[in-house]
Amino acid sequence: MAEDVKQTMRIFLADLASRRGTVTYRVLAKALDVRPPNTIHQIGDALAALMAEDRAEGRPFLAALVLSKARNGLPSPHFFDIANRLGRYAGAETGEEAHRFHAGELVRAWDYWGAPRDVPDRH
To answer: What is the pLDDT of residue 40?
Structure first.
């Protein structure tokens, strides 16, 4: 996925976080006009890149705002795999532990990105 699309995704998700919202992968792909083939895969790759950037900068994962319609309010298993690889999570992709981790990351993202925009790299 192109760098400009990734940055557009960051802006979209930061704005959504400031309003304490969430979005599904499909709705995000449509909002960003990501085209086939492999639309959801493209979204997943961009989210993984955002997660790496967020981890490097000590920020909560904006990717926590993106939920799978089929997973009862959780992101895809890929979210947990990337969080694990980045050293921020060491649990399963389902179950109570996954729900706890995701809920905490979601609230941290909402709080961080909902804060006053006095730090230039937040957008």
So the answer is: 87
